[in-house]
Amino acid sequence: MPSLLFLRRPHLYLSPSRFSQLSTSTTAMGSNSLIWFRKGLRIHDNPALLYAAEHSAHLYPVFVIDPHFMAPDPAAFSPGSSKSGLNRIQFLLESLADLDSSLRNLGSRLLVFEGVPAEVIIRLLKEWNIKKLCFECDTEPYSQLRDNSVKEFASVSGIEVFSPVSHTLFDPVDVIQKNGGKPPLSYQQFMKLVGQPPMPLEQQLTSLPSIGTLGDCGVLSVPKIDELGYCGITQEEFSPFRGGETEALNRLKKSLDDTEWVSNFEKPKGDPSAFLKPATTVLSPYLKFGCLSSRHFYWCLQDVYRKVKKHTSPPVSLVGQLLWREFFYTVAFGTSNFDRMEGNRICKQVPWKDNEELLVAWREARTGFPWIDAIMVQLHSWGWMHHLARHSVACFLTRGDLFVHWEKGRDVFERLLIDSDWAINNV
């Protein structure tokens, strides 16, 4: 985790609220730009993409398949890589295919590479004579290390870097600084520090600068899952939730069209056993991959609230759920060792059992408790569970019954959930 020494913005690190103040790029007009997609797999409300396109002769949209997350691991307890089950890998590939389709509609395409991302990006910056590099800020520790190495190269090479905060409603750096350099440790304290988030960007792209000469760089198309080395691996069922911005916006519209449901939404109420039609939006995986802008979601909800006579409020409303997400992102970013018990100043130190047999029985839906086992079957099959179902199996594993370390359960969630999110899974 970053310490407070790193809670600062590097050169040209700009939040989206400052984006509208930029009238022209500081880079020479008509130069080559690279937009590096990681999360933020969307066209709408994407300040990094808009800025990359501005005043550029050629724009290279790039995604790098990272073996750290994607390489097949035959030793893992379920089909997939060492870090991710097949459901999330499939969801990501569907999201990339949808992004590629959207870029093609704008006269461009997604350029896919495979390798260590920082090394690939640095090679492309050299090969294509890039003068402007844009990518959405990512606050996860692995991502921070990756991005800092690229920023260092760009700095010494005279390449402009624009890395806006657009995966979250607020900049965790700003919130922590407002709180005296420490993350707020309660939802109420967090709410006192933040106001209304910025509005989503209104500018709509109708075209993008053309892709320049590619050279001999080994560009790939968006692969199918078997092309990643999973051709010999079978899975009985994939998640019914398809990835991509198009699906995200359609699902959002369907949810918002039911204004009565939106205005009356109140967590923790809801039916976790609802199967064919889940009793929630199922927008979390789209937020996780940035197929849906959290700012767009937030302000769409505000539009619904303005049209109804009465609605629920944070922390139980739908807007309240978005703000919970912000709270956990901020605490995670500002807390050293947030993803482990030892060395974590805000985590209670508990002498958990080290019982692999109990863990495996829970993980494989063999506890003998029908409700718990049914939820774990759904997790393996769909990569998704209702939030109350998640609470049920998490509590059963830890303080509720088995007393197995929460980190062990976190690792299972981290692997199998299509909406696996580092800042939230470690709560």
Describe what you observe in this structure:
It is a single chain. The protein has a five-stranded parallel β-sheet, sandwiched between helices. It starts with 15 loop residues before the first helix and ends with a helix. With 427 residues, it is an alpha/beta fold. Helix 5 packs parallel to helix 6 (141-157) and helix 7 packs across helix 13 (318-334). It is built from 18 helices and five strands. The chain has helices spanning 16-19, 47-53, 67-70, 86-105, 117-127, 141-157, 172-178, 187-193, 245-257, 259-264, 284-288, 294-307, 318-334, 356-363, 370-382, 387-400, 406-416, 422-425, and strands spanning 31-37, 56-65, 111-114, 130-134, 160-162.
Detail the topology: elements first, then pairings:
Blueprint: H1 16-19, E1 31-37, H2 47-53, E2 56-65, H3 67-70, H4 86-105, E3 111-114, H5 117-127, E4 130-134, H6 141-157, E5 160-162, H7 172-178, H8 187-193, H9 245-257, H10 259-264, H11 284-288, H12 294-307, H13 318-334, H14 356-363, H15 370-382, H16 387-400, H17 406-416, H18 422-425
Parallel strand pairs: 1-2, 1-4, 2-3, 4-5
Short note summarizing the structure:
The protein is 43% helix and 7% strand.
Question: Which features does this protein show?
Answer:
single chain; about 425 residues; alpha/beta; 18 helices
Number of strands: 5
Query: What do the pLDDT scores average to?
Result: 92
Note the total helix count.
18
Main β sheet profile: 5 strands, parallel
| Order of neighbouring strands in the sheet with most strands | 3-2-1-4-5
Distance between the termini: 15 Å
Q: SSE string, helix = H, strand = E?
A: HEHEHHEHEHEHHHHHHHHHHHH
Structural class: alpha/beta
Compute the CA-based radius of gyration.
Answer: 22 Å
- Rough outline: globular
